[in-house]
Design goal:
Structural class of chain A: alpha/beta
Radius of gyration of chain B: 21 Å
Largest sheet of chain B: 3 strands, antiparallel
Strand order of the largest sheet of chain B: 1-2-3
Distance between the termini of chain B: 49 Å
Oligomer: heterodimer
Helix content of chain B: 40-55%
Order of helices and strands of chain A: HHEEHEEHEEEE
CATH architecture of chain B: Orthogonal Bundle
Bound molecules: iron/sulfur cluster
Number of strands of chain B: 8
Order of helices and strands of chain B: EEEHHHHHEEHHHHHHEEEHHHH
Chain lengths: 172, 366
């Protein structure tokens, strides 16, 4: 490949160090030029807690139940989601509600601590009554806080993605 | 007055260079290694057994969690294995999209390897640049399937949904600058004298030993063999793709580095071909509502970034879940070569050897 004379030259003059420093300098200069100048930033660091992050529309977050225009629960207790869930974290109890033809879930529990956010439940639901919303800041201090239910649980299944200081959803 | 004796030390399980919870028991004579035994099992979750109790559809989520650096490849192996078991034909468009995502995944896996391997050996800068590009690919995965790491990207019979609008633009933007990025990594490492000193002639494994141990992937190809399942037994749409298998003959750490860089370039080529030739049509095959297997067994292997990833399924009559499932995990099998590579060498070479084998402990232990 390289002739002996060339490799001797390489040994005497550290080209490789020069190349590496040039590359580092290029990026250093780039950031320095853009810093605090209001220019379009090209660096990749996200200042996450201060600046909200954007998520892709298909992002898989927390499971959320949907109500239709009349404020009625869309779920009709077909149990498809309960059956398909690989970690078995959904529990539904079928019941009736006055003035409603289709079955009504009197209980819909979701134990989030074991959910793996695979979206199989949403996929299996033929009635579009659940989605995985864009909430990703899901940490809590207590284990009980992970249990979601329609009512009575620590968290409500109907809560939409919070419009928080920290995250924005690109869906809306 | 003085006496010498062999010393036994543990490397890991929490050593940063072991890339997870790998414990290596080393017998040292001074600084020379006389015996080396990898101790595994710290991350064992019984994935194979769990999958036997889940339906073919559900099992895919566990493949995300074996080799979590290359989960799309694992998904592909699972999906294609099950499709082979049931004789399902996947639409051509789905094959193309799968190929594209798997190649992107090969790049992420190699980038992670490059960054951490260089970091172990002492080159800090590459890590930052490698992760910058990896981040971009992970956003592409997020756009496609909603998750960055545990993707669950494919479905049996095709894909869940078609590409989202705008994804092609993201991939093209990435493709446009990626070749320059590889050149940047090369500027930092290929001619770097310290890098060369730390890698050339280190952790040798010749082709004969590699084949005898069942080692596959870049480690085998760096020893001169051109065994690549994408060429040898084409799956997905690799038969229609024009690419070369990267090989080297030196069989050392440096050669493996060159092979992996070249593989990234070839992956770049394949992705371009997938984008240009993306056929129209459906992305999901017609499937029966419930998949019920016959008495049957299949083995399906794909070329994962780390080597031959095989899924072995045994079906029972009317069963909705595999009767037996086995994963031929490349990391697990490649790890056997560690002892061969380091015995008789210095302690510092173990770090390079673990890095160059590119093991992911989630896949070693399963
Ligand atoms: S996302 Fe997956 S694990 Fe979570 S509830 Fe739905 S099916 Fe179950
Ligand atoms: S699949 Fe949909 S409709 Fe059926 S029980 Fe689940 S949420 Fe309700």
């Amino acid at each position: 490949m390289a002739s002996p004379r060339y490799s001797l030259l390489r040994t005497l003059i550290p080209f490789d160090i020069y190349g590496g420093m040039k590359l580092t300098g290029k990026y250093f200069g780039k950031v320095l030029r853009q810093a605090n100048r209001g220019l379009k930033r090209t660096h990749v660091v996200v200042e996450y807690p201060e600046v909200p992050t954007t998520l892709m529309p298909r992002f898989r977050g927390r499971l959320q139940m949907i109500k239709d225009e009349q404020g009625e629960v869309k779920c009709v207790c077909c149990m498809a989601c309960e059956k398909i869930c690989p970690t078995q974290v959904i529990t539904i109890e079928k019941g009736k509600k006055e003035g409603r033809k289709t079955p009504f879930p009197i209980r819909y529990d979701f134990e989030m601590e074991r959910c793996i956010f695979c979206e199989f439940c949403v996929e299996s639901c033929g009635f579009d009554s659940i989605i995985l919303n864009h909430q990703f800041e899901l940490a809590t201090y207590n284990r009980e806080d992970f249990s979601h239910a329609m009512e009575g649980g620590f968290q409500n299944m109907f809560d939409p993605t919070p419009v928080s200081h920290y995250s924005v959803s690109s869906e809306d | 007055m003085f006496k010498t004796e062999e010393m036994e030390i543990n490397l890991g399980p929490q050593h940063p260079s072991t890339h997870g919870v790998l414990r290596v028991k080393l017998h040292l004579d001074g600084e020379t290694i006389t015996r080396c035994t990898p101790m595994i099992g710290y991350l064992h979750r019984g994935v194979e057994k769990i999958c036997e109790n889940k339906t073919f559809f559900q099992g895919q989520v566990w493949t995300d969690r074996t080799d979590y650096v290359a989960s799309v490849s694992n998904n592909l192996g699972w999906a294609e294995g099950v499709e082979k078991l049931f004789g399902i034909t996947v639409p051509r468009r789905a094959h193309y999209i799968r190929t594209m995502l798997t190649e992107l995944n090969r790049i992420t896996s190699h980038l992670l390897w490059l960054g951490t391997h260089a970091l172990d050996i002492g080159a800090m800068t590459v890590f930052l640049y490698a992760f910058r590009e990896r981040e971009e690919i992970l956003s592409i995965f997020e756009a496609f399937c909603g998750a960055r790491l545990t993707t669950t990207a494919f479905r049996i019979g095709g894909l869940r949904e078609d590409l989202p609008p705008g994804l092609e633009k993201l991939v093209r933007a990435f493709q446009a600058r990626f070749l320059d990025c590889i050149d940047e990594y090369e500027t930092l490492l290929t001619e770097n004298r310290i890098w060369k000193k730390r890698t050339i002639g280190v952790a040798l494994l010749n082709a004969e030993d590699a084949i005898a141990l069942g080692v596959t992937g870049p480690v085998l190809r760096a020893a001169g063999s051109n065994y690549d399942i994408r060429k040898a037994f084409p799956y997905a749409s690799y038969a229609e793709m024009d690419f070369e298998v990267a090989t080297q003959t030196a069989a050392d750490t440096y050669a493996r580095y060159l092979v992996r860089l070249e593989e990234m370039r070839q992956a770049h080529r394949i992705i371009n071909q997938c984008l240009d030739g993306l056929p129209e049509g459906p992305v999901m095959a017609k499937l029966p509502k419930v998949l019920k297997s016959e008495v049957n067994e299949v083995y399906h292997a794909i070329e994962a970034p780390k080597g031959e990833l095989g899924y072995y399924f045994v079906g029972e009559k009317g069963g909705q879940n595999p009767y037996r499932m086995h994963i031929r995990a490349p990391s697990f099998i490649n790890l056997q070569a560690l002892s061969k590579m380091v015995v008789g060498r210095l302690l510092a070479d173990v770090i390079a050897a673990i890095g160059t084998l590119d093991v992911v402990l989630g896949e070693v232990d399963r």
